[in-house]
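Table S2 (text version). Query chain:
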Amino acid sequence: MAKPSSNPRFWSQRVTRESNALDLEPGVFKLASPRAVALSLRRSALTSARRKADPFRSAMSMLNFYINRAGKTLPSERRQVLQAAKAELRRAFGRAPQRRAA
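Corresponding C-alpha cell output:
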C-alpha cells in the first residue's frame, strides 16, 4: 500500500513538479503576458522528454490543470492572463481557435 504524502493538501504542486506531463520552466504561470506564458509552455512541451501526448495537448493540459487547481484563489487579473494564454498557445502551435456550438 502506498504511503500517503506528508501533506496531502498540496498534492497538485507535487503533480506539477513530478508528473509525466512536462518539464516546466520556473515561474511560467507568473509571467506577465499571455504570449510569454504560451511561448514558455510551447518550449517546454517541445523539449520535454517526460510528456506522453503531443506537444500541444501536453501544454494545454498543463495550463488547464494550473487554472483549475488554483480555483477561487486565483486572482481575476491572473486568471484573465492565463485564459488569454490559451488563445496564444493555439496560435503558437498553428491551431485554429475553438468554435463553440450554439
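Notes on Table S2: DSSP finds four helices and no strands in the chain. Helices lie at 11-18, 34-47, 55-70, 76-92.
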